[in-house]
Amino acid sequence: MKIKEGDKEVLFFITMPPTYPELGPPKYELSAPWLGRKAKAKLLHELDTISIENIGEVSIYLLIEHIRGFVRKLPPSDSIRIKITKKTPCLEKLNCPDITHGDVIVDRKSVFQGHAAEVHSLDDVKSVLAKLKENKKISNAKHNMYAYRIKQSTAKGTAVVVQDFDEDGEAHAGSRLMHLMKVMDLDNTLVIVTRW
Fold this sequence. Notes:
The chain is of the alpha+beta class. It has two domains: 78 residues, Ubiquitin Conjugating Enzyme, CATH 3.10.110.10; 107 residues, 2-Layer Sandwich (Ribosomal Protein S5, domain 2). A five-stranded antiparallel beta sheet has the order 4-5-8-6-7, with helices on both faces. A three-stranded antiparallel beta sheet has the order 1-2-3. Strand 4 and strand 5 form a beta hairpin. The two termini are 18 Å apart. It comes from Diatraea saccharalis (sugarcane borer). This is RWD domain-containing protein. One of its GO terms (cellular component) is cytoplasm. Its main location: cytoplasm.
């Protein structure tokens, strides 16, 4: 379902499991690449709250109207559209690190594939992500969640770790991936998990 408010559009994917609405909430996913990570996490949290509070009731209309109201109230800074294309000049000049692709794993109705690259800067991270998105199958996947950790030395010789993650609409996936990388003490690495 497309939910449009002005020039902002959210794709809302809804699945109604056999337990809906009597015993459980509907399952849903959002696609809004223009929406900032914090705003998207806040919206998903609010939708989860509405779903749980309305178990036993038909709640899809409430969810859709909440999304519409949320988008309508967004300040301009939360709705900056970021578009990376093959022809982005700054990315063409970058040397893309080698990318290792894992085996495809099928679990229930989802298909997953992991990708990893050695990265030493944010430019490396951007370059790898742009290179992966040149593959139409990967760019059209439901989710491309990722996490990276880069160890850098300061002028004083101390080590600093630059790290971040993006869940791409897959709740908690990026933060769990980051946690696993910390536990494994994995530095200078970018890990991407694609889910179809």
